[in-house]
């Protein structure tokens, strides 16, 4: 039984890392731009497809393909931000939050449908990072693709934390997230930070898409569910908190997996797994309305 | 004077007063109106409405193939001069797999576009919503790839179905499981009306034959099944068969994960993927080695039973779309031809005539000889294509075409002597 619980917890940890990668991008965009990006799931989907075509058309091996996909998604996200979100920074727009919701929601529908035309309606799958599975506990196994995705995800999260805390750009982002006015006073160009935040958030989602593609396959609608889960995680962790988001993602991944593994009625585990995440969120919000590490004031200026 | 009068008369001979000229012209136009109307009507196409998912969250992949196949049928019919001297025009409506969108689409096609009949659909729940609209307006509806028995069991005179249905399909699969000798079955279905309906019928067959089984459900939006598969693998006594009734995005990851975790297909446990994904064009790209030994149903005619129409359709479809057509595409293609045949045979596009034309249809399409049952016993048999083909195949090589995979059931179509080939380690 202990083996069984350990393998389920390990698998939950793997899923949690993937959740964290998607959700941290969302929370960075929220903390800097103060908008909820409803197209985040679709950027994750585009990242997966970019990785797929970099491998299949250009012959790039799967590992570097993840980095190339991230770079393309970074540029793609910056293009989207420049093209669609700059009105947010203009004083002429009064209801900025509403504008952000409408434009990103519209973008998500557009990207999903354009993906059907560009990439075709049927699921696609890039080659595995490493074929096969690793026997871990008492004959129970975990696939190498999951281990690679989790390892790659952890590396990206560590790199992100280093970037946010140890580089000038990261500290500038942090400053803008705390106060745009104060950041401007010390000479930080806020608009450039918005662009960077949207690009970094998109690149993280794209990296997650490319890492997850050999596990879940790619389809134009693949962003719908991770998007919902990412929102749950971001709220759980506290809107705008990167560390809170990572902790919430790991907790959710492990607890969802253990819920499926230990639910007394085994026939209903996968049916209620997503609902379980929402239940946890409701519980946390009852006792901590700002999430685990949330700030009190996060509304759009 | 006389001369003057005579001169006037002569001058006026052959010339009519303006009033008379206008009256004559009016009469001429009026007399020729029916002729013009007839000519105009002859030039007007017969409109058919297609409903089905073309975008998420519905099964847009299958929907797009069905739409392509329907367009091929219309082109073929029009190339032969159309029906009753009129071209066939198909108006497509995306229902997104949502019942509310299906209702709106059917309403628009009937009220706004004035279609003679509706056909298509891929989701039973949506077809059930659309049926209420066609029933209200008395417009014929030939449902294609929708398997819920409720669709024909309602007994609506306007509703026909040319695909298989759960009572036919899952009874066949259940009987095969019994014949193949499985002793302990895990039955996982998607948590919606369709998955649960299919699961119920398969469970009834297993219960009747005293085969132990356990039922599982999964959310249709789920993509990660690792925890569940580890749990299934840990089951004591172990399962020797894993039957999946799941047609959503998670189907391929489930098969792949089941293989990579060493659960199925293995020498100890077989696997069946029901719902259509097993014969879709990117099946092998997604499952790779995990597909060798996997079983699934095919709702088209087996290759050995192909007629000239099947061969021609497969060749043209493959040439045009670079993929084998699944059964759903053949159903959509045949639906257009069936409706055209019904209109041709009755010489009318009136709803009653098309319904009568379908009820008396006796036409060979890509999936065999089409006739629609008039029996109400059982209830779902009414207006059902009872001979809808369905076979069980088991892949024995990677990248094998579904047309070339060994057929194991029903035995009359079997291409191999065995019922089930135990997968290798």
Can you offer a commentary on this structure?
The complex is a heterodimer of chains A (301) and B (425). Chain A has 301 residues and is mainly α. Chain A has a single domain (2-287), classed as ABC transporter involved in vitamin B12 uptake, BtuC, CATH 1.10.3470. Chain A is 72% helix and 3% strand. A two-stranded antiparallel ribbon of chain A has the order 1-2. In chain A, helix 9 crosses helix 10 (242-262) and helix 9 runs parallel beside helix 11 (269-287). The radius of gyration of chain A is 19 Å and the shape is globular. The model of chain A is unreliable at 297-301 (pLDDT under 50). Chain B is an alpha/beta fold and 425 residues long. Chain B has three domains: 2-43, no CATH class; 46-164 and 306-381, Response regulator (Rossmann fold); 167-298 and 390-413, Response regulator (Rossmann fold, 3-Layer(aba) Sandwich), CATH 3.40.50.2300. Chain B is 44% helix and 15% strand. In chain B, the strands form three sheets. A seven-stranded mixed sheet of chain B has the order 7-6-8-9-10-13-14, covered by helices on one side. In chain B, helix 7 (166-180) crosses helix 8. Chain B is globular and about 65 Å long. The termini of chain B are far apart. Residues 1-16 and 34-38 of chain B have low confidence and may be disordered. The interface between A and B is large, with 43 and 40 residues.
